[in-house]
């Protein structure tokens, strides 16, 4: 629909959404090029494109979701490496404790 912000009216922004370029309108405007005023009779809000506030909420949700996933991955990697160190330490300790040294036998 739009090729640049100049194509969108009333401070609308030209954005790529769902495989095509479209005008993202401010709160009071709608239409393919943000040409419809919300206070005009016969106004129909274009619900296909999220508003700037809705897009900000979506972006925040994605950010926190990714941050949580990264935290979980880091925690799992930490647990795996600490488990590996524990197993190695336990094997060394078990071998060390099971070693009794040379047996001394005395004959009477």
From TrEMBL:
UniProt-listed InterPro entries: EGF (IPR000742)
Record Gene3D superfamilies: Laminin
Any Pfam family: EGF
Cysteine pairs bridged by disulfides in the record: 25-34
Keyword set, alphabetical order: Disulfide bond, EGF-like domain, Membrane, Transmembrane, Transmembrane helix
TM segment ranges: 61-80
Stated name of the protein: Oidioi.mRNA.OKI2018_I69.chr1.g1539.t1.cds
Organism in which the protein naturally occurs: Oikopleura dioica
Source taxonomy: Eukaryota, Metazoa, Chordata, Tunicata, Appendicularia
């Amino acid at each position: 629909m739009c090729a640049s912000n100049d194509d969108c009216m009333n401070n609308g922004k030209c954005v790529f959404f769902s495989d095509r370029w479209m005008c993202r309108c401010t709160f009071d405007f709608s239409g393919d090029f943000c040409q419809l005023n919300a206070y005009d009779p016969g106004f129909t809000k274009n619900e296909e494109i999220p508003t700037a506030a809705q897009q900000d909420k979506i972006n925040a949700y994605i950010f926190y979701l990714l941050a949580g996933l990264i935290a979980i991955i880091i925690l799992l990697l930490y647990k795996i490496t600490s488990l590996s160190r524990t197993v190695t330490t336990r094997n060394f300790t078990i071998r060390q404790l099971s070693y009794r040294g040379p047996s001394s036998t005395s004959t009477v």
